[in-house]
Amino acid sequence: MAKIIQLKKQLVDSKLPTKIELYQELLIRGALSTEQAQELEQLQIGQEGEQTLMDYFRMYGDSNWSVFQNVWVDYYGKFEVDCLLITSNQIYLFEVKNYKGQYVYENSQCRCNGQTIGHNAISQTQKSYINFTNLLRQNKINVPVIGVLLFSGIDCEVTIHDEIGDLKVVRRNQLRNFIHKIKHDERNYSKNHVDIDKLRQVLEDFEIHNPFLPDAIPREIISRIRKGVRCSHCHSFEVDTLKTYVCCPCGIYEPIENAI
Question: Taking 90 as the threshold, does the pLDDT of residue 2 lie above it?
Answer without folding.
Answer: no
